[in-house]
C-alpha cells in the first residue's frame, strides 16, 4: 500500500521533471529561471515569447494527451478483459480522426466546437463498433478483437485518405496532424477540449473500483451486486471523452494507450484502482519524453511525437501478440 | 451444394465479368458504341476506336480483373488456413510492407522509375510476410499467431510511412497517397504482361492445392493423422497466398477489402468446399474490382475516384452486416 503510494508520488515528480524539461529543451535552450520570469515578469523578449506561446502550451498538451491515452487504454483493457485493447486497436483514434477530417473539410480549419464534438463522437462510435463486432458470438477473444479492429481501422483510414486526396489543401494541412504531432495544436482547441478530458479522467478514477470489479469478469461483478451495464456505459463515455479529446489536439498518437497499461500493471499488479492513476502519470511522462525526443532524434528536423511512440510501441505490440496467440 | 449449382454460379459469374468488361470498354469520356466494342474484341473494330479500346480501356480492365482475382483468391486461402473469416492479406502485413517500400521509392527517391515501382512493392510485401511468418514461429508455424504479429508489422509499416509523408514535399506525398489508395488509373499493357505469369501459374497451383487446404481446415492434429505434411503444405499455401497478394498490390496499390468480400460472397454462393470456394472467389473478386473501377470513372467525370475508395466504402458495411448475421456462439 505504502509502496504504491510512494510510487504514485514519484510518478508525479517524474511528470513535473518531464514538464520542466519539455519547456526548457529544444532548438533554443531556455534556462528554468527564464521560464519562471516569463510568467512573473514578462518583458516581451524572444525567449519569454517562446516559453509563453510555444513551449508551455505544448508541454501542457503533451501531458494531458498522454494521461488521457494511458487512462483510456487501461479502461478499455479492463472492460474488454483483453490485453491487446487500446485506443488504436479499438479504432477510437481513427474514428475520431475521420469525423474530425470530415468536419474540417465541411466547416473549415479554424478551431471550433463542432470539431470537438466530431472527434468525441467519432472516437465513441468507432470504439463501440469494434467492441460489439469483437464480442459477437459470445465472448471477446484477442483474435476477434484484433481482426475487428484491423478491419474497421482499414476502413476508417482509407476513408480519411479518400477525403484527403480530393483536397490538396486538406492534405497539406492535415498530414502533420494525422501523424500525431504536438506542434500544430492550438491553445484555443486545447482549452475547448480540456473540460471533456478532465471529466473523462475524473469519471475513470472515480469509477476505478467498479471497473476493477468488471475486470474480474462480468458474472462476478454482477454477483457482487454491481450494475454492470451502467458502469460499462460510463466507462465508454469516459473513453470517448479521453480519446476524442486527445485526438482533437494531437492527432492519432499510436500505441501509447496500448503500452502504458502494461507498464502500470507490471508496476502495481492487477488492481485497476492503482493501475488507472499510474497509467495517467506514466502516459503523461512518456508522451512528454517522446515529444522531447522528437525534437532531437534527427538533427535539424522535427519528427512528430506520434512517429516516436509508434516506432517504440509497434514492436511491443508484436511481442504481446507473440505471447498471446499460443 | 451440388456440382450443378457450382457450375451454374461459375457460368453466371463469368458472364457478369464479361458484361462488366464490355461496359468498361464502352463507358468513359470517349463513349464507344456496343457494336464497335464487340467487333474490336474479335479484331474487326473501326480504327477510330482502336487506340481508346486497345491502349487505354482493355489493359486497364484486365489489370482490374487480375488484381481482383488475385486478392480474392489470396484472401480465400488465408481464411482457410486460419479458419477465421476475418483474415485478409492486408491484415498479415502484406499491404503494409508493399506500401512502405513503394512510398519510400516515390517520396525519397525522386528519380525512381515508375516502371520499377511494382518490383519495390512486391519485395516489400514478400519481406513483410516472411517477417511475420518468422516472428510467429514457435515450435511450428501458426497462421493465427501470424495474423496477430502481422497487425503489429502493419502498424510499424504505417508509422514508417507516416514519417515519410510528414517530412517530404507535398507533391510527391500526394502521388504516394494516390498509390496507397489503390487505383487502376493509367494502367497499360506494361502492367498487364508482368502480372499475367503470376496469375497463370499461381491460380492453377492454388486450385490444385485446394484439396489439401480442405484437409488442413480439419485442424492440425487430424490433418497429421490423415497423413498430411502439415508444415510443408501450409508454407506452400502461404507462399501462394503472399505471391498472389503481393503481385496484385504491386500493380494496383492497396485496394481494400477484396480479400474479405470476394471469399465471403463466394461462400454464400457455393459453400465452403475449397475447390469451389477458391474458383468462385477469384471470379467474385475480379467482378468487384472491375465494377469499382468502372464506377469510379463513371460517377463524377472528369473526376476519378480510386477503385480502392469505392471498394472500402462498399466493403466495410457489407462485412459488418455479414458478421452480424453470421454471429454464433463459440
From TrEMBL, chain A:
Cellular compartments annotated: Cell membrane
DNA-binding as UniProt keyword: no
Keywords tagged on the record: Cell membrane, Membrane, Transmembrane, Transmembrane helix, Transport
BP terms from Gene Ontology: siderophore-iron import into cell
Gene3D superfamilies per UniProt: ABC transporter involved in vitamin B12 uptake, BtuC
The protein, known as: Iron ABC transporter permease
Organism: Paenibacillus sabuli
InterPro entries given in the database record: ABC_BtuC-like (IPR037294), ABC_transptr_permease_BtuC (IPR000522)
One GO cellular component, as annotated: plasma membrane
From TrEMBL, chain B:
Membrane topology: Multi-pass membrane protein
GO biological process: siderophore-iron import into cell
Segments traversing the membrane: 7-28, 61-78, 90-109, 115-135, 147-165, 191-210, 236-262, 307-324
Subcellular locations according to the entry: Cell membrane
Keyword Transmembrane helix belongs to the record: yes
Keywords assigned by UniProt, alphabetized: Cell membrane, Membrane, Transmembrane, Transmembrane helix, Transport
A Pfam family assignment: FecCD
InterPro entries, alphabetized: ABC_BtuC-like, ABC_transptr_permease_BtuC
GO molecular function terms noted in the UniProt entry: transmembrane transporter activity
Any one of the GO CC terms: plasma membrane
Family assignment from sequence similarity: Belongs to the binding-protein-dependent transport system permease family. FecCD subfamily.
Record protein name field: Iron ABC transporter permease
Amino acid at each position: 500500500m505504502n509502496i504504491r503510494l510512494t510510487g504514485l508520488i514519484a510518478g508525479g515528480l517524474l511528470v513535473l521533471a518531464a514538464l520542466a524539461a519539455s519547456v526548457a529543451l529544444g532548438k533554443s535552450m531556455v534556462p528554468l529561471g527564464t521560464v519562471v520570469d516569463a510568467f512573473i515578469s514578462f518583458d516581451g523578449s524572444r525567449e519569454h515569447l517562446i516559453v509563453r506561446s510555444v513551449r508551455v502550451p505544448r508541454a501542457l498538451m503533451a501531458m494531458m494527451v498522454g494521461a488521457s491515452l494511458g487512462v483510456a487504454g487501461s479502461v478499455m483493457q479492463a472492460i474488454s478483459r483483453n490485453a491487446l485493447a487500446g485506443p488504436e486497436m479499438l479504432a477510437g483514434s481513427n474514428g475520431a480522426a475521420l469525423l474530425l477530417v470530415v468536419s474540417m473539410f465541411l466547416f473549415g480549419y479554424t478551431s471550433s466546437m463542432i470539431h470537438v464534438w466530431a472527434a468525441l463522437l467519432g472516437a465513441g462510435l468507432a470504439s463501440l463498433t469494434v467492441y460489439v463486432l469483437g464480442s459477437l458470438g459470445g465472448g471477446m477473444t484477442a483474435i476477434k478483437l484484433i481482426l475487428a479492429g484491423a478491419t474497421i481501422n482499414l476502413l476508417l483510414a482509407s476513408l480519411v485518405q479518400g477525403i484527403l486526396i480530393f483536397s490538396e489543401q486538406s492534405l497539406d494541412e492535415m498530414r502533420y496532424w494525422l501523424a500525431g504531432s504536438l506542434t500544430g495544436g492550438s491553445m484555443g482547441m486545447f482549452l475547448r477540449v480540456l473540460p471533456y478530458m478532465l471529466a473523462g479522467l475524473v469519471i475513470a478514477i472515480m469509477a476505478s473500483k467498479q471497473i476493477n470489479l468488471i475486470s474480474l469478469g462480468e458474472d462476478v461483478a454482477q454477483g457482487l451486486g454491481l450494475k454492470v451495464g451502467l458502469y460499462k456505459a460510463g466507462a465508454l463515455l469516459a473513453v470517448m471523452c479521453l480519446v476524442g479529446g486527445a485526438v482533437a489536439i494531437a492527432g492519432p498518437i499510436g500505441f501509447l494507450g496500448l503500452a502504458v497499461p502494461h507498464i502500470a500493471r507490471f508496476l502495481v499488479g492487477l488492481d485497476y484502482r492503482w493501475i488507472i492513476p499510474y497509467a495517467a502519470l506514466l502516459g503523461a511522462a512518456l508522451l512528454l519524453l517522446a515529444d522531447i525526443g522528437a525534437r532531437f532524434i534527427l538533427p535539424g528536423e522535427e519528427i512528430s511525437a506520434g512517429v516516436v511512440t509508434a516506432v517504440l510501441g509497434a514492436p511491443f505490440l508484436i511481442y504481446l501478440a507473440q505471447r498471446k496467440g499460443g | 451444394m451440388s456440382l450443378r449449382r457450382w457450375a451454374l454460379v461459375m457460368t453466371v459469374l463469368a458472364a457478369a465479368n464479361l458484361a462488366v468488361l464490355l461496359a468498361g470498354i464502352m463507358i468513359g469520356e470517349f463513349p464507344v458504341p456496343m457494336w464497335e466494342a464487340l467487333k474490336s474484341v474479335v479484331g474487326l473494330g473501326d480504327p477510330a476506336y482502336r487506340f481508346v479500346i486497345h491502349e487505354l480501356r482493355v489493359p486497364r480492365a484486365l489489370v482490374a480483373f487480375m488484381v481482383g482475382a488475385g486478392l480474392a483468391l489470396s484472401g480465400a486461402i488465408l481464411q482457410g488456413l486460419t479458419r477465421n473469416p476475418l483474415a485478409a492479406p492486408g491484415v498479415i502485413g502484406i499491404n503494409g510492407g508493399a506500401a512502405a517500400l513503394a512510398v519510400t521509392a516515390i517520396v525519397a527517391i525522386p528519380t525512381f522509375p515508375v516502371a520499377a515501382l511494382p518490383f519495390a512493392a512486391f519485395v516489400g510485401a514478400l519481406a513483410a510476410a516472411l517477417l511475420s511468418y518468422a516472428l510467429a514461429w514457435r515450435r511450428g508455424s501458426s497462421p493465427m499467431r501470424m495474423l496477430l504479429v502481422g497487425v503489429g508489422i502493419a502498424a510499424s509499416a504505417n508509422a514508417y510511412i507516416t514519417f515519410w509523408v510528414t517530412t517530404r514535399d507535398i507533391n510527391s506525398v500526394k502521388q504516394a497517397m494516390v498509390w496507397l489508395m489503390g487505383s487502376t488509373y493509367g494502367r497499360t499493357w506494361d502492367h498487364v504482361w508482368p502480372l499475367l505469369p503470376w496469375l497463370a501459374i499461381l491460380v492453377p497451383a492454388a486450385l490444385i492445392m485446394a484439396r489439401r487446404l480442405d484437409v488442413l481446415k480439419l485442424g492440425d492434429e487430424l490433418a497429421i493423422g490423415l497423413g498430411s505434411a502439415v508444415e510443408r503444405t501450409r508454407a506452400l499455401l502461404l507462399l501462394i497466398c503472399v505471391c498472389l497478394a503481393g503481385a496484385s498490390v504491386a500493380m494496383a496499390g492497396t485496394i481494400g477489402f477484396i480479400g474479405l468480400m470476394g471469399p465471403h460472397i463466394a461462400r454464400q454462393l457455393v459453400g465452403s468446399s475449397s475447390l469451389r470456394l477458391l474458383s468462385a472467389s477469384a471470379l467474385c473478386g475480379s467482378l468487384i474490382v472491375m465494377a469499382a473501377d468502372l464506377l469510379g470513372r463513371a460517377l463524377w467525370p472528369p473526376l476519378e475516384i480510386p477503385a480502392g475508395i469505392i471498394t472500402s466504402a462498399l466493403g466495410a458495411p457489407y462485412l459488418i452486416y455479414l458478421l452480424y448475421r453470421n454471429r454464433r456462439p463459440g
